[in-house]
Amino acid sequence: MEVPPGSLIFVFPKVRHWYHCRKSAGGDDEWVEIEASDGLLSALGQAGVSPASPVVQIGDSPLMLRQFRRLFDLGRNGAGQVVLAARAYETVAMAFDELAADGRPRAAVKKMQLALGGGASAGVGSVASAVAATQRSASWMRTVFRRETGLSPKRYQLTQRLARAAEMLQSTDRPVTEIALQSGFCSLSAFSNSFAREYGCAPSVFRNRR
Q1: Which H or E element spans position 133?
Q2: Which of 70, 101, 146, 178 has the highest local Cβ count within 10 Å?
Q3: Mean pLDDT by 10 residues, the chain (210 residues)
Q4: Same domain, 31 and 84
Q5: Taking Cα atoms as reference points, which of 47, 48, 50 lies closest to residue 17?
Q6: Are 12 and 70 found together in one domain?
Q7: What angle do CA 107, 154, 100 make, to 5 degrees?
Q8: 50 DSSP β-pair partners
Q9: What gap in Å lies between CA 127 and CA 59, rounded to an integer?
């Protein structure tokens, strides 16, 4: 499988594995090996990490990136196994804190949802600008957003735009072209085609049902 940036891959004892680091994309295959305690394996299992699901996405948190740089610098500088193990365990603990303890991934998804579908100009902004507002990597944010909402950011944005347009069609007498533009569509034809696919009829027909 393709592993997005901002991911941790846990390699379990006695489980065969294979990976390929894509150096052309900036990948680096430095790694640190520590002996997993029963307590750590149990904690991983409770968090849903297993040999069948070994990838944890933590995004591109500056805090975590600094932590990994310190860990690898220790390895390059010949630090002993005890020091490396302590730093590695600390890194794992921080990763899980970053992932789950304070709900930051869900907060980032909520921020994207608001950018794509909230307020008076619901869904008018681009997906790229919504991702940028979360200060997370685009690939990580898209993966987490789909996991939390069941929709891609682009599909979520479209449903929000159409829902807003449907509301205006039934609650106002504004021209359909004006509603299309206010809902974030670039043209009346693009709006009409998307609306018909979603609601099964043309916007004008939908309006007449009120």
Answers
A1: helix 127-134
A2: 146
A3: 76 81 74 74 76 76 79 83 83 70 64 71 68 78 81 89 90 92 90 92 87
A4: yes
A5: 50
A6: yes
A7: 25
A8: 53
A9: 17
Distance of CA 167 to the CA centre of its chain: 29
Q: How many domains does the chain have?
A: 3
Spatial contact of 106 and 114, defined as CB atoms under 8 Å apart: no
pTM (2 d.p.): 0.52
| DSSP 8-state assignment for residue 151 | S
Integer Cα distance of 84 and 194 in angstroms: 55
- Measure the CA–CA gap between 26 and 32, rounded to whole angstroms: 19
Give me the phi and psi of 113, to 5 degrees please.
Answer: -60, -40
Contacts of 75 (CB under 8 A, 6+ apart): 30, 32, 84
Asked if residue 182 belongs to a domain, the reply is yes
Taking the C-alpha atoms of residue 166 and residue 203, their distance in angstroms, rounded to an integer, is: 8
Q: Tokens 């846990």 identify what position? A: 10
CA distance 34 to 79: 13
Dihedral sign, CA of 2, 76, 88, 58? negative
Print the SS3 string covering 89-157.
HHHHHHHHHHHHHCCHHHHHHHHHHHHHHCCCCCCCCCHHHHHHHHCCCHHHHHHHHHHHHCCCHHHHH
Is residue 2 in a domain?
A: no
Spell out the residues 6+ positions from residue 166 whose beta carbon is closer than 8 angstroms to its own.
195, 199, 206
